[in-house]
Structures are given as structure tokens and as C-alpha cells.
Amino acid sequence: MNIRNIPREAILGLVIVALCGVIAARFPAFVRPSNLLSVATDTAPLIMLALGQFAVILTRCIDLSVAANLALTGMICALLNMAMPGFPMVLMLALALIVGAFLGAVNGALVWKVGIPPIVVTLGTMTVFRGIIFLLSGGSWVNAHEMSDSFTQFPRIPFLGVELLAWIAVIAVTGVYLLVTRTPLGRAFYAVGGNPHAAVYTGIDVGKTQVLAFVLSGALAGMTGYLWVARYAVAYVEIANGFELDVVAACVIGGVAIAGGAGSVGGVVLGALFLGVIKNALPVVNISPFWQLAISGAAIIIAVALNARSNRPKGRIILKKAEHTHEPV
């Protein structure tokens, strides 16, 4: 059996199980159900951000401003809660989604209407968003004692033994899965990334599709921003700084083609869980947290190399006999 015929999700799942097994050989408590649930809950923000990034990468773009979007939306929510402690949580969630989606739409509009490459646009807005946080907060932190209990406890509310943060991630995974597999917009994401010229001939507006991908990414980043700030009960300018690297890494490790047009929701979730297991295991095995960035960077390079190798064109097969010899066993 050719290993190239094995689904990427199955290989990644086995790698995660093997990784947990190696860690458990030295620290058995790591694989206790309660600890694994904590690891999954801690990884929920990364999963939600990676789902948005997945949609953007599918359309041959990239969003490097997701972490800055998270920080700006989280700061706006924190400042609003500080000024109006009784502000309803339902409206707070809606506000986070709207602010995040607006910031994503700004990225998409600059890519579509101005024609600036996505990496340049999002590098610029990443800095702009951080600057706006500084202007809004004056460089000060919003700490736990300045936030209401309802604000900070919302992501921790247990439901069936699992924190609400994890359930929101489950809802996001289900929603994005249905979007990309059951709707015309989801098919447009794949079509635009796979062959934008052919997509135009099928009636797909490439620019609008890319804008909608950025809006989805921004909305998920905004929602994650509130949940992040509320869970850790602190908001400041540099919050989640550098987290965009983990988001891209989760997508690439999960098999999303950096050139667009290929990838799956299952792969993205497993890619995020892979990074979550590594990051939670590093302190257990006494490895410095400063190695996390190096590991994330190395994981991106290895995953891109594997993706490029698996997607390499096989060349034109002229003889029918030779074609049969290349069929999978």
C-alpha cells in the first residue's frame, strides 16, 4: 500500500496518538481524560483562528493580521465591559463578531479593490490594529479586577462537563465544515484557489469570494478575541503577539495547500490539536517555552515540503501500459 494514498487526516491522527503515547511513557498523567480535555479546551482559540485562515488560504490569500484582530477586538470588548459592566453578553458576542468581520472586510477590500497582495495588506493592518489598541488603551492593561464576573466567567461556564469555550469551537468547526462542503460559497473557495481563471468562466466573482473569506476569518478572530480576553482576564497591546504563526502552521500541518484550492476542516482541526499537544507537552518534559516558536517554524517548513512533494506533478503518461503501472495498489 502506497503511503501517499493514505488520507492526510489519518496520518496526522496516528502521529498525535503516537506523540501522546511517547509523552505518557514518561508522564502517565498527561493522557488522563481530564488533562486531554484541558488540552483540547486550551487549543480551542487556535482551532477557531485556523478555521478562518483555512478559508482565506483556500482562495490563494493569507491573513497575517488575525492575532492583531483578536487583540483589538478583545481590547474593545474589555474597555466596553469596564465602562458598562452590565452590558448583555449576547450583545457582547454579537459586537465581537461584527468588529472582527469589519476588520476582515477591510483586509478583503484592500486586496480586491486596490489590488495589493494579501501578505502586504495583512502585514500592514497587523501593525495598524496594534497601533489602534495603543491609542484606545493608552498603553495600559485592562486587568481582572476591572472586568465584571459575567464577562470573565462566560467562557468557563460548564455544559455537560465541558467549558463553553470548547463548545463554541465545536460550533465553529461544524459551521465551517457545512459552509465549505454544502454551500456554493464553500465550493467557490475551492474553485478560486484551484484555478481563478476557470472560476471566472463559471460565473464566480473571484474578488468577492476572497473578501467573504477574509470576513469569515475576521469574524472568527473577533469572537476568539473576546473569549481570549475573558478567559485570561487581561487585555493589553501585545496580547497573542506572534500567534498568527501558529495559525498558519496549524493549517499547513493539516494539509491545506499554501497555494490554495486544497485542504479540509478535519485536517485543520488535527493540525491545531497537534500543535496544542506539543505546546502542552513541552513544559511537562522541561523544554523551554522559547523553543515553541522554533518548533512551529520547523513544523511549517516540514509540512510545506511534504505538501509540495505529495502534490508534485507526475508528468504526462503516454503509454496505456505505463498508466496501469502507476495505479495505486
Distance between the termini: 6 Å
Q: What is the helical fraction, as a range of percent?
A: over 70%
Count the E strands.
2
**Beta-strand residue fraction:** under 5%
Shape: globular
Supply Rg.
Answer: 21 Å
Structural class: mainly alpha
Helix count? 14
User: Please, what is the average pLDDT?
Assistant: 88
Strand order of the largest sheet: 1-2
Runs in which pLDDT lies below 50 for 5 or more consecutive residues are 313-319, 322-329
Main sheet attributes: strand count, strand direction, barrel closure: 2 strands, antiparallel
What is the H/E string? HHHHHHEEHHHHHHHH
Question: How would you explain this protein's 3D organization?
Answer:
This is ABC transporter permease. The chain crosses the membrane at residues 40-59, 66-84, 90-112, 119-137, 157-180, 210-233, 245-278, 290-308. Pfam families: BPD_transp_2 (PF02653). With 329 residues, the chain is an all-alpha fold. It has 14 helices and two strands, in the order ααααααββαααααααα. It has a two-stranded antiparallel sheet. A hairpin with a 2-residue loop joins strand 1 (158-159) and strand 2. The chain is globular and about 55 Å long.
